[in-house]
Design goal:
Blueprint (H helix, E strand, L loop, with lengths): L8 E3 L2 E2 H6 L9 H18 L1
Antiparallel strand pairs: 1-2
Length: about 50
């Protein structure tokens, strides 16, 4: 069974499907907080730990 792209982890706690769900077009979107959380998790989990 092939693995779907949405199944890939982009950080220890998030999959790419979560990132793709974000709507970051508006600078006051609440999704920006989630985007920052994903970014921090990726940096910490992949490079700093």
């Amino acid at each position: 069974m092939p693995v779907k792209i949405s199944d890939f982890r982009i950080s220890p706690n998030f999959k790419s499907s979560k990132w793709n769900e974000l709507d970051l077009r508006a600078k006051d979107s609440l999704d920006w907080k989630v985007a920052v959380d994903i970014f921090e998790d990726r940096i910490e989990g992949r490079f700093l730990k």
